[in-house]
């Protein structure tokens, strides 16, 4: 753990990643203190200061109804992170359990679980989400549900492949010969050996979930106004390019920072934890 | 007689997260033309990294620091460019590894791999000439159904067959030095014994010098003319095989010999805890250098 | 005396239709209490299949296994499982890298309900001590141990289960010779002290010579020769046995002589 941290901070690229992630997470947590106009996350209208270019008061300018863009971006980070954490918190355990038992038990269990996974994997993720959002109300809650539904099969695949190869290891045979139960072998013996890979994928996926959620919002199917969301901010601003460039450039940069940061950290983790095995 | 390979005061260090570790503490050895020399030691003693240094593979690692003299047929290997060193491998210097099946490329037939090896020395060699030459080489390792073997993929042949193919390939370009890193350890004992005999006869006939890396004292006794015993990055004893086996002088060599269970019986040997004597200075048998 | 383990005409086939592989053919032998029986053979001889049937990893296709005078079912009771334990070749893989060595040793105690839950850690420590490891090793990960120490942990795991028969599957072939000698001594001492029986699977005849009471030589799934260790080495009946002994790399003059006599006898 300590070693991982040291390596993470020593490599320049992963250090940048750590700084970016810290920036995003800290501003999301302390949004109330950092944002110059906390009330602008809601439906505030200020027709005196609308659509203003970046200036001393509004460093990233204001949007079409006069809200401070900087404040809204900081609150949007909060939404993105919450979305990412909730999606991964649900998708990861489901996918992990499916993959773990399919990979270890084999036979019919493997067949049923993995074909189910394949069905989900065969549908393009965004299409699945759009279809679900078409049926359901476009709310934050449903956006999370849609993204989760398309996310767990990737974890099932990942864990399935690791569990398949771990099944051949001597320690699994040892536990079987002793007579340990299947849940014990899957959860206590094999799962710990899958955790580094799962953790790495989760870090990488934070970035992707943020992108997908933004895409949904961009299409008008995700987070609804007046809640600030990076994707819908870009979508809204796109109509006023290139004159009001700040409306798209700053939210776009914010997406870039978050995604790039999580990816750098994820890549570094993959290298560090992979080398451990 | 001239030396095919001479290593002088070789030091190897690895830079890691925890600092620099010295793996080889200055080892020196030489192999004369046509001589079979064994480097014998336990795992982690530094015997395999020595082979990889001679092949020039370790120097490509950024974390490795290699110092010391390396001379191959009187040329200073340290002055060679990467490309020149690469050109030496497979022509003047070749190698055989522990597991023959995984050291052959699984997606090409044996025949294709033979042609490729032969073309390293003679790029214009025709397919027919290569096949003919491959046939002769297979004969030399007692494989007589050439057509079947040349058209086969490595996984279609047994481990022992692959090992023979690997030996034939390694000797295809008449190298002056063959590096054999634990050859045949992955094979069954009877097959291992056969292939070692075969290799022994073949290098004797072709006059190829061999650097034989092994942990198995018995195998070394049968194969090598001269041995170096290596312990934790230091050569502790060297001399003609017969002399070292009949009269081991270094404490470590003695412990190693005593630890091998005998087929004549006598029970499991009792081994003293590792004592400081293992770090005693080098023991040299006889007049080692002419 | 009743044998601890008996195999009666045991066979095992894998696959079906055109792809039948007969891994073990009509094998019968006994292992007496306190005895070390070496099972010798090369790859494909059926050694591992045999071990897996004894351990109950899978059942035999035909024939019977008996343990301590009673038939041994394929679906083992916990009692059978605790009595028959395994030590594998590669201690690097046989211990879970993500769990402490203590947790690996304790698994059997939990499964069989040996000792009260609060006593089990001290039982684990006692088992580690028996194999010559310090008690506080139980908290360490396998990666912090040397190869020999890991193999000792694997042996401690079999001991802690109060086993009576241990299947040793090439227990020392991944170890250096100095370490091998110590582990073999430990195995010998434990057998004597606890009255254990061993099925010692190996390809190394020089090890067999010094640890086994009897030797069973396997070739292509069949038992070709089974006799007292001394008889096997001094007067092997089968050519295959002779070949195996002749292929052992040896270090002393006496051994070379023994091999040479066997080789010349074989030719006559």
From TrEMBL, chain A:
Gene3D superfamilies noted in UniProt: MetI-like
CDD domains the record matches: TM_PBP2
Membrane spanning residue stretches: 12-35, 73-104, 116-136, 142-160, 206-224, 244-265
UniProt cross-references to Pfam families, sorted A to Z: BPD_transp_1, OppC_N
Keyword Transmembrane helix (UniProt): yes
InterPro entries: BP-dependent_transpt_permease (IPR050366), MetI-like (IPR000515), MetI-like_sf (IPR035906), OppC_N (IPR025966)
Keyword Acyltransferase attributed: no
Recorded topology in the membrane: Multi-pass membrane protein
Keywords recorded for this protein, A-Z: Cell membrane, Membrane, Peptide transport, Protein transport, Transmembrane, Transmembrane helix, Transport
PANTHER family, per database record: D,D-DIPEPTIDE TRANSPORT SYSTEM PERMEASE PROTEIN DDPC-RELATED, OLIGOPEPTIDE TRANSPORT SYSTEM PERMEASE PROTEIN APPC
Family: Belongs to the binding-protein-dependent transport system permease family.
Protein name (Swiss-Prot/TrEMBL): Cytochrome c550
The organism of origin for this protein: Sinisalibacter aestuarii
From TrEMBL, chain B:
Subcellular location(s) of the protein: Cell inner membrane
One family name in Pfam for this protein: oligo_HPY
A molecular-function term among this protein's GO annotations: ATP binding
Annotated keywords: ATP-binding, Cell membrane, Membrane, Nucleotide-binding, Transport
CDD domains listed in its UniProt record: ABC_NikE_OppD_transporters (cd03257)
Membrane topology: Peripheral membrane protein
InterPro entries per record: AAA+_ATPase, ABC_Ni/Peptide_Import, ABC_transporter-like_ATP-bd, Oligopep_ABC_C, P-loop_NTPase
Keyword Coiled coil annotated: no
Domain ABC transporter residues, every copy: 5-257
Coarse class of the protein's main subcellular location: membrane
Domain of life: Bacteria
Family: Belongs to the ABC transporter superfamily.
Protein name, as recorded: Dipeptide/oligopeptide/nickel ABC transporter ATP-binding protein
TrEMBL record, chain C:
tRNA-binding as UniProt keyword: no
GO molecular function, one term: ATP binding
UniProtKB keywords: ATP-binding, Nucleotide-binding, Transport
ABC transporter domain boundaries: 5-245
Keyword Transmembrane helix among UniProt keywords: no
Alphabetical list of Pfam families matching this protein: ABC_tran (PF00005)
Family: Belongs to the ABC transporter superfamily.
Name of the protein described by the UniProt record: Peptide ABC transporter ATP-binding protein
């Amino acid at each position: 753990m300590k070693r991982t941290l040291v390596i993470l901070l020593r490599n320049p690229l992963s250090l940048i990643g750590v700084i970016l992630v810290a920036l995003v997470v800290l501003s999301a947590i302390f949004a109330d203190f950092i944002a110059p106009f906390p009330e602008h996350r809601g439906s505030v209208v200020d027709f005196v200061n609308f659509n203003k270019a970046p200036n001393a008061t509004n460093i990233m300018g204001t949007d079409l109804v006069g809200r401070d863009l900087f404040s809204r971006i900081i609150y949007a980070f909060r939404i993105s992170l919450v979305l990412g954490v909730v999606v991964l918190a649900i998708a990861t355990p489901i996918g992990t359990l499916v993959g773990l038992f399919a990979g270890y038990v084999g036979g019919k269990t493997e067949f049923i679980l993995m074909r189910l996974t394949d069905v989900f994997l065969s549908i393009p993720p965004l299409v699945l989400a759009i279809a679900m959002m078409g049926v359901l109300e476009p709310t934050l809650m449903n956006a999370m549900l849609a993204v989760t539904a398309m996310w767990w099969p990737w974890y099932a695949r990942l864990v399935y492949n690791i569990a398949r190869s771990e099944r051949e290891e001597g320690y699994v045979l040892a536990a079987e010969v002793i007579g340990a139960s299947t849940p014990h072998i899957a959860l206590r013996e094999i799962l710990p050996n899958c955790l580094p890979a799962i953790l790495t994928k989760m870090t990488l996926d934070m970035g992707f979930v943020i992108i997908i959620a933004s895409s949904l919002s961009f299409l008008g199917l995700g987070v609804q106004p007046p809640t600030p969301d990076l994707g819908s901010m870009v979508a809204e601003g796109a109509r006023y390019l290139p004159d009001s460039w700040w409306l798209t450039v700053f939210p776009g940069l914010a997406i870039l920072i978050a995604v790039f940061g999580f990816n750098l950290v994820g890549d570094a983790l993959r290298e560090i934890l992979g080398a451990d095995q | 007689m001239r030396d095919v390979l001479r290593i002088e005061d070789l030091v190897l260090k690895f830079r890691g997260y925890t600092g620099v570790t010295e793996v080889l503490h200055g080892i020196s050895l030489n192999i004369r033309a046509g001589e079979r020399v064994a480097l014998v030691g336990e795992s982690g003693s530094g015997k395999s990294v020595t082979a990889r240094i001679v092949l020039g593979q370790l120097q490509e690692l950024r974390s490795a620091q290699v110092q010391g003299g390396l001379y191959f047929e009187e040329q200073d290997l340290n002055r060679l460019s990467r490309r020149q060193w690469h050109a030496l491998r497979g022509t003047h210097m070749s190698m055989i590894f522990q597991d023959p099946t995984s050291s052959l490329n699984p997606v090409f037939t044996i025949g294709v791999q033979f042609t490729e090896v032969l073309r390293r020395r003679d790029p214009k060699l025709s397919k027919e000439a290569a096949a003919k030459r491959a046939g002769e080489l297979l004969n030399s390792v007692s494989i007589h159904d050439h057509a079947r073997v040349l058209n086969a993929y490595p996984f279609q042949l047994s481990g022992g067959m692959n090992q023979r193919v690997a030996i034939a390939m390694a000797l295809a370009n008449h190298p002056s030095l063959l590096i054999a890193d634990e050859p045949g350890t992955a094979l069954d004992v009877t097959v291992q014994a056969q292939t070692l005999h075969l290799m022994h006869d073949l290098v004797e006939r072709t006059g190829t010098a061999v650097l034989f890396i092994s942990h198995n004292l018995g195998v070394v006794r049968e194969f090598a003319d001269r041995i170096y015993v290596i312990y934790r990055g230091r050569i502790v004893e060297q001399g003609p095989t017969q002399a070292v086996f009949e009269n081991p002088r270094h404490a470590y060599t003695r412990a190693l010999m005593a630890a091998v269970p005998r087929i004549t019986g006598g029970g499991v040997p009792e081994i003293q805890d590792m004592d400081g004597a293992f770090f005693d200075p080098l023991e040299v048998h006889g007049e080692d250098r002419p | 005396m009743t044998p601890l383990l008996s195999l009666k005409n045991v066979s095992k086939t894998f696959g079906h239709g055109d792809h039948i592989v007969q891994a073990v053919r009509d094998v019968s032998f006994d292992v007496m209490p306190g005895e070390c029986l070496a099972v010798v053979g090369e790859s494909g001889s059926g050694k591992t299949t045999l071990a897996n049937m004894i351990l109950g990893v899978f059942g035999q296709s035909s024939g019977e296994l008996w343990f301590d005078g009673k038939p041994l079912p394929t679906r083992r009771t916990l009692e059978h499982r605790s009595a028959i334990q395994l030590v594998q070749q590669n201690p690097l893989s046989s211990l879970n890298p993500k769990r402490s060595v203590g947790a690996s040793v304790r698994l059997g105690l939990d499964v069989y309900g040996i000792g009260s839950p609060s006593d089990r850690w001290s039982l684990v420590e006692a088992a580690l001590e028996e194999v010559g490891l310090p008690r506080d090793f139980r908290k360490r990960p396998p990666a912090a141990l040397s190869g020999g120490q890991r193999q000792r942990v694997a042996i401690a795991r079999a001991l802690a289960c109060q086993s009576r028969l241990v299947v040793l599957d090439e227990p020392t072939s991944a170890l250096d010779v100095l370490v091998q000698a110590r582990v073999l001594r430990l195995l010998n001492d434990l057998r004597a002290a606890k009255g254990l029986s061993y099925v010692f699977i190996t390809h190394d005849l020089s090890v067999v010579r010094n640890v086994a009471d009897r030797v069973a030589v396997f070739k292509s799934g069949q038992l070709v020769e089974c006799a007292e260790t001394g008889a096997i080495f001094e007067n092997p009946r089968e050519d295959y046995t002779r070949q195996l002994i002749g292929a052992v790399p040896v270090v002393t003059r006496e051994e070379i002589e023994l091999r040479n006599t066997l080789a010349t006898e074989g030719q006559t």
